[in-house]
Amino acid sequence: MNYIIIVGATQALMALGILLKDKKNNGQHDNILSYLLASIFLHLAISFALNVFWPNSKIHQQFNTFIALAYPGLLWCYIRFLEHKGKSIDILLAMFPSIGASIGYFWIAAYVINHSGELPPFIKLYNSISGYAYTILYIVYPLKILAKTHTIPTFWKLEKRMVRLAASLFLFVGLAFLIISIWTRLSDISVYFNLIHLWLRLIIYSILAVICISIIYVKVSSFLYVHLYQQEQVKPRILDHQHEDRLDSSMGKSRCPSAEENERNAGIDYVGILAKVENLMSQHKVFLDPSLTLDILATKADVSRHHLSETLNQYQEKSFYQYVNEYRIKEVITLMDLHKSKGETINILAMAFQAGFHSKSSFNQYFKKVQGCTPSAYLKAKPHYNLVNT
């Protein structure tokens, strides 16, 4: 038991450390994860202290800790903020059951301390009420979360998997509480109470450890993507983009194809190719994929790489990266306008990644090229925005 608790507490502390280390790249949704991890660590630390210092005390029968009542609500807040729809009141509502239960929890703890380990008569009422709260919260919230995950943007695919895993595990706990509640109503389970209590605690501690490990995996993967992988990918693409820009400049944007080129391209339906690509960009939003390349777009449009490049150069007078990143900038501005109209917090970096950009620097570069100013300057010119950071 103590081994599982220590593992879980260590994982929670590690995940919390990773989040705090990369704080400058964190959004509001990462702050929700910090609250969740801090709660898990506190929960496991208290459980470890009880097991070490009062291993045989009857206080262990007070197994419905108040802290765990916040977990499903905080996970719900996480996906709300992931979609930029969360508000501060959501966090307060998520914590309310835990705050209310903490009053009863510490009241019981004070009674036990003052009466040499004896349990108060009202502990049964506390366990009954908190047990019903567990059942409701660990069923309703996970079902809402699982129904909502399909609306999370594609960019957050790792976060989406983590949320689904956590919600499924929480739902399992909720169903376990429901079964125990029904079983208690139908028959006397006092004989099996200690065994049920032991296994339930083992399951919950194991689940918390798994959730902490999944958060570590997501945050480490995101950290590597932002700080290592994307740098290796962005450099050659920017060089390629600059090379294409130089070609455009040297040949002139209004350059007319030669007679030889006209003859070679006579059988190519460039208008049809452009229509396919515009449909992929505007209707299917393929530009949201950060790994989108000329080859991938050509495959999706069912045309050759060369013909796609020629289409963009001749009919749009843009290189592939200019064309794609302008769509991404428009997507970011659309998101800004949407959150502005709702009075919600704007996290520029999160929106840039959501729109398909690889890094903050490339996003700022293209934003300035398209809009004529930096993202910060654009927002500061509009005081009704709630600016987080860039």
Produce a short descriptive summary:
With 390 residues, the protein is an all-alpha fold.
Describe this structure in words.
- The chain has 390 residues and is an all-alpha fold.
- It folds into two domains: 2-229, Rhodopsin 7-helix transmembrane proteins (Rhopdopsin 7-helix transmembrane proteins, Up-down Bundle); 234-387, Arc Repressor Mutant, subunit A (Orthogonal Bundle), CATH 1.10.10.
- Helices cover 74% and strands 1% of the residues.
- It is built from 15 helices and two strands.
- Mean pLDDT is 76; it is low at 229-266 and 383-390.
CATH topology name of the largest domain, in short, is Rhopdopsin 7-helix transmembrane proteins
Number of helices: 15
Could you spell the SSE succession in H and E letters? HHHHHHHHHHHHEHHHE
- Evaluate the radius of gyration: 28 Å
Q: Got a strand count?
A: 2
Whole-number mean pLDDT: 76
Q: What sort of overall outline do the alpha carbons produce when their principal axes are compared?
A: elongated
End-to-end distance, in Å?
Answer: 45 Å
The CATH homology group name of the largest domain: Rhodopsin 7-helix transmembrane proteins
Beta-strand content:
under 5%
Sheet/helix structural class? mainly alpha
CATH architectural category of the largest domain: Up-down Bundle
Largest sheet descriptor: 2 strands, parallel
Q: How many domains?
A: 2
Poorly predicted regions are 229-266, 383-390
Q: How are the strands of the biggest sheet laid out side by side?
A: 1-2
DSSP helix fraction = over 70%
Transmembrane segments: 32-53, 59-79, 91-113, 125-141, 162-183, 203-228
Pfam families: HTH_18
Keywords: DNA-binding, Membrane, Transcription, Transcription regulation, Transmembrane, Transmembrane helix
Domain HTH araC/xylS-type: 271-381
